[in-house]
Write a structure and sequence with these properties.
This protein is an all-alpha fold. It is 77% helix and 0% strand. The protein has one domain.
Length: 248
């Protein structure tokens, strides 16, 4: 019961932060609109996959991973830390402290991106798998869990929002660049193409495209399993590293 109250408290802190709400709601819509318009203007014409469809799923993946930044804000933002100091001295386990931040951020992500994908497909007529839309939503939700776990882990390691975000940008940029979210980096040569296999975003992106256009679920379960296992590893690492006294 106490844990649920802590999660609710943390979730309300996120909701009260307009910037975090904008980043996880309006920002993806703006990115999709801008990228779709600019690229269609540059290249012109539309085949079976429009530029809005193409960048629709890519920008959703892009912003879903960046929820790691929201997690670090939820955990280590100075105002939040000041308000949560009393939790350190409350009769709750240390797991409740970091896990509540992770779960509250994940709840925001699942609600935001589930609604966004429904709106984009049924209101703006972008392709998110048609009848397979729920599979795409689950894939993005698990990606959000991975992002939240990664953001929380970096906070436990670096013990500040600034340190976590500045360092976390390195793996996030690696994942996004080699994941081909902005453009197909595999065209840069065999060595770069081989590096793309190290990015989980490459496999999330490929998995989504296969489902949306080929009804191919061959890598769906492996990708979900990898994201879940990696998230669990991050959470276990948080349990080992996090010390409540360092949160003050």
């Amino acid at each position: 019961m106490k844990f649920i109250k802590i999660v609710t408290f943390d979730f309300m802190n996120i909701v009260r932060n307009p910037m975090l709400l904008i980043v996880n709601t309006l920002f993806p819509l703006i990115l999709i609109g801008v990228m779709g318009f600019v690229m269609s203007s540059v290249f012109g014409g539309e085949g079976s996959m429009s530029f809005y469809d193409y960048y629709g799923i890519k920008m959703i993946i892009f912003t879903a991973l960046l929820i790691a930044m929201t997690a670090s804000n939820t955990f280590m933002e100075e105002k939040v830390k000041a308000g949560n100091t009393r939790i350190i001295y409350a009769p709750v386990s240390k797991t409740s402290i970091y896990l509540s931040k992770l779960i509250s951020t994940y709840i925001l992500g699942t609600i935001s991106y589930s609604i966004l994908i429904f709106i984009l497909q049924y209101l703006f007529h972008l392709n998110f798998g048609g009848r397979n839309i729920l599979y795409i939503i689950l894939l993005i939700n698990i990606l959000c869990l991975f992002g939240c776990s990664l953001g929380t882990l970096f906070c436990c390691i670096f013990k500040s929002e600034e340190g976590a975000n500045s360092t976390m940008q390195i793996p996030l940029l690696f994942f996004l660049f080699f994941g081909g979210v902005i453009f197909g980096v595999h065209r840069l040569g065999k060595f770069v193409a081989a590096l793309t296999n190290l990015s989980p975003i490459k496999w999330v992106n490929e998995c989504a495209i296969r489902i949306m256009y080929d009804n191919d679920f061959s890598i769906y379960r492996p990708v979900l399993a990898f994201l879940l296992i990696t998230s669990i590893i991050c959470i276990i690492a948080c349990q080992i590293i996090f010390k409540p006294e360092e949160y003050v």
